[in-house]
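Handout, section 3.2

Students often ask what a structure token actually looks like in practice. Rather than define it abstractly, here is a full record for Probable queuosine precursor transporter. The first block is the sequence as you would receive it.
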Amino acid sequence: MTRLLPGILAMAAIVVASNILVQFLFGQWLTWGAFTYPLAFLVTDVMNRVYGVAAARRVVLAGFVVGVICSFIGTQIQGEFGPLVTLRIALGSGLAFLGAQLLDVAVFDRLRAGRWWRAPLASTLIGSSVDTLVFFTVAFSGTLSVLEPGNDVSWAGEMLPLLGVGPQVPLWVSLALADWSVKLALSLIALVPFRLIVRRLTAQLA
């Protein structure tokens, strides 16, 4: 368990930081949390490559528990328009994190025998896509308003040009697309630290 502690701490730090930074806007379509959260996939993939599937899943579950705690704390903090974290956001966040991260672990394991970059790239791209789809749909889609009838998310359904320039779509679709684009960009950038960290940890175990 001691060997997993750095991964667990890194995952916990990313989850906590992302839950805080998501409260601060970056431009019109993003929050600062969009730039820290994707690092969770880097941690999962490093643990998977170096220590295996079981270890990666333990780190994911630790991150999930930390996320649940953060969501609970957020529901107790009142912002300008109500609790910082609503039931739909908490549910969407938890489902997205757990589902996407476990999928990442499974895809990585299936591809681990290929070129070094294939498993982390493919697993992160697939996991990030599922994460974005699940979170934004559960948290903001008007079709799921039954999940929390008292929470008015009609603002997220306002019809606006996609990212300000495309066809008319609900606002939450633009937010999801912007978030997904950042995840895709960071999945490519993260290949560099992935390679370096894996080499260092593997050398230490040798």
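Discussion prompt for tutorial groups: The chain has one domain: 4-205. How would you have guessed this from the sequence alone?
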